[in-house]
Amino acid sequence: MTYLRAYELAQENGFQSMTRKAFDIYRAAAGKRKLKKPPPQMRTLRVVGHGKVARAAIRASSEDEPEFIEIPWCRTDYVSTIVGRVEEALRIPSLLWSLAGDGQLLEEHIYVYYHSLFPPTGDVGPELYLIPQNEVQEYLAKNIKRHVWRKTSPDPETTQSSDPMVQATKGFHLINARPSVYWQDYIAMRLAFERRLATGLEDYSGREMPSYLRQIRSAVEKVLIQTDLDDGQQNTLFDCVVPIQTYRSDEDENGESEGYELTEAHAYSRLFSPHRCTAIDVFWEYELMEYDTHVDFHCALLYRIVDCMDVSRSGGHDFSEGKPEAGRGKWCRIFDMGLEEMPPGRDWRCIHKLDWGLSERDAGRIHKTLFGEETLSPGNQISKIDTIRLLLAVVGVPFNVATHEDGRDSLNYQATPRVPWRFGSEDWIGVHIRKACGSPLAWDAGYNRSRRK
């Protein structure tokens, strides 16, 4: 039998449950294997019908005439596995319907571990909709997911003032904005960057936001919640983060991880000040290639200060001229990690090459650029350590820095289920961040100096 025959069998019965014999014939024609019985400890999700036809099909699936069916699932499933379980429960060919949730169609190749609809913990799974194929466009027209990065909306009074500082304050909910003649330039620059991000997100309407952007979002939120900023101020500062370019080698055209080993990634974001007419550009580059005889590894974190009076940098980095490099275009190194170039072969051994570039003066300048030092400035509510953590977060690297003797310097993997960085020098990063921020711990003095430069 052929796939065409399976399609013909599906059409013959319409959107109604097949007999067991007819369903088995259809599955054989479609080349589908018999589903394994799911383990009893699996969680369940609900599938409800969208429209009269789908609701009737679900009610007809049991003598109890339920309004929904419960389907077992786990985070190692693909959507195709869940589709197979729904198909088995209804005995209605999946050729005739799709699953959707939160305004997104769930394509069968999606690995649910990376999808935000499927929570990592808890007993309650997502609620999905069973949609007949001829009703999919209607569903999307009314419910399509459109991604919005900002957490706040401009105050309605934004345009009622002719004062650019007032416009900026109300438009971006700034925190005790400092007087400047450059607020009009700040507004123009920030709106241009926000439009670039919004245009990019339009491509993902009806689909999940790209995994790298979700990681940046999660990482930034993790830093902000640990500051002394109130909820409104946290939202203001979150909106100051504008990711412009992200890339990861293991993602597909939908921005999702395909489950391969991550070998290369980079990100470029602009972090606007919520207080002054300034911003910080941040660039992250990562490469990890493992071979039988050796390993190629390199990652670097760069930044540059952007002042609104500097027109040359207001439009962002021009990647047509290559990636940012420390010492060019006012880019500065925070750190650079890699492995010494050793002849590959049986005697190859891993020797770390660690270069730190951020001084105490640099950290102070970054903190002042973003948050100020005046009595009412946000600089009094966010520490220098959290400021540097924020620079890591805006390019998708959620990093915990120990601030007490029992703490630990580490990647926050709970916040990074989607881009699994591996660089193994977390203690080195933590020691140097504390030193640059003037907040060393007692045990920093005993750190193994032989590994660092």
List descriptors.
453 residues, alpha+beta, Ubiquitin-like (UB roll), six-stranded antiparallel beta sheet, five-stranded mixed beta sheet, 13 helices, globular, disordered C terminus
Number of helices: 13
Whole-number total of structural domains = 2
Determine the fraction of residues in helical runs and give it as a percent range. 25-40%
Identify the strand order in the major beta sheet. Answer: 6-7-8-9-10-11
- What class would the helix/strand composition place it in? alpha+beta
Distance between the ends = 67 Å
Uncertain stretches of 5 or more adjacent residues: 449-453
Q: Overall pLDDT, averaged?
A: 87
Biggest sheet layout: 6 strands, antiparallel
Would you report the number of β strands? 13
Short structural summary:
The chain contains 13 helices and 13 strands. With 453 residues, the chain is an alpha+beta fold.
Describe this structure in words.
The chain is an alpha+beta fold and 453 residues long. It folds into two domains: 3-143, Phosphatidylinositol 3-kinase Catalytic Subunit, Chain A, domain 1 (Ubiquitin-like (UB roll), Roll), CATH 3.10.20.90; 158-451, no CATH class. Helices cover 30% and strands 20% of the residues. It is built from 13 helices and 13 strands. It has helices at 3-13, 20-29, 52-59, 79-90, 136-143, 164-172, 183-202, 211-224, 231-239, 311-314, 360-371, 384-393, 426-436; strands at 43-49, 68-73, 97-101, 104-105, 124-132, 241-248, 264-272, 278-290, 295-307, 332-339, 352-356, 399-400, 410-411. The strands form three sheets. It has a six-stranded antiparallel sheet, sandwiched between helices. The longest helix has 20 residues, at 183-202. The radius of gyration is 26 Å and the shape is globular. The model is unreliable at 449-453 (pLDDT under 50).
